[in-house]
Amino acid sequence: MQWHDVNTTPNTLVLTGSPGSGKSSICQVTRFFLKAWHQSEIEICVAYLAFDSFQKEELTVSEALSNIVQQMMLERPYLMDHVNTLKFTGGQLSRAESIDVICRSRHDLKQFYLILDGLDECENMGRELFEDLLTIEPPLKILVATRPNRGIMMAFRNCVIINLNMPMSLSGHLEYMITLLEKDPRIFGYLDHNHDNVANAAKIITDKSNGINIHTNAIVNSLAQAETRAAFELLLYDPPSCLHDMYKLMLDNVLQQPAEFAAFAKKSLRVMLQASSPVSISHWAKASKKELESISYKLHLGRDPTEGEMFEACVSSCKGFVSAASSTDVGMRLQLFHFSVKEFLQVNGLPE
After folding, report:
1. Which residue windows are coiled coil (predicted)?
2. Range 121-126 contact pairs with CB under 8 angstroms and sequence separation of 24 or more
3. What does the pLDDT look like over 50-62, one tens digit per residue?
């Protein structure tokens, strides 16, 4: 899979992982080879910014953007005309001036590669810088290396993210996918408990999602909630092409349930939207008491549901939006299965 194929708007690839996972090494090697390959192509430019903790309180967005402009001018001097149009007399360009120069220069370039190594070291500034860079048209090809800091990761919600703590070959990814499909009784049933069918489905899902983990998981979550074989096959062979459309489909599935289950799911999602961390079963059950009683009656339990039954009811009614958090000593906890779900639900809202 080539860089320019993985994501079109914006063309950004994010490498995340713990210290020592190789993020910076990949950035440096990428910079070396991009410069070597395109050295003679004057319509292609490569810029590289490395951030460290010492810059945290000092580096501003204006300084970072000005640094990018300086690298562009040094590598491709003919772009200096765009600075000259500003009647620039020296010193540092302002934030707006730098963006203007980069935008003008981008139109003259066939491609502009930008590498941001260690962007999390300057979290707030880094997030602002990244958002400024996304306004540039045509878009830049951006490679970002960052630790998985939740604050800055929200800025990358629409980007391809590769976790270097969990490297996996294509064959390993397929094996993992086969295991996921076989573990789910509903999916395994729709595939006729046939291992060849499972292997074929795993390959289809991997191809459709370009191997992007978050999209893969969203497809699997939706398949696990399919109410009919026809719905299952439609999702498998013709899934939505982007996460936003996948989430819209999942939300439709939530709202089209019987009224008691839809109300229960909406209440559960609101509880998790308001939480800043995974929610305990007891807290969620207390907040959803009225809705929980309604579905307990609907399911003819005749008693209070167990913790396991409450968990299954929540996951089932939320149609893939909710998963179990990593097990802890304080019992089972619920969470939105990815932080991009929270962003989607906040933007689109949950009907009353």
Report:
1. none
2. 121/51, 121/52, 121/53, 121/55, 121/56, 122/51, 122/55, 122/56, 122/59, 123/56, 123/149, 123/151, 123/152, 124/151, 125/59, 125/60, 125/61, 125/64, 126/51, 126/152, 126/155
3. 987 666 667 899 9
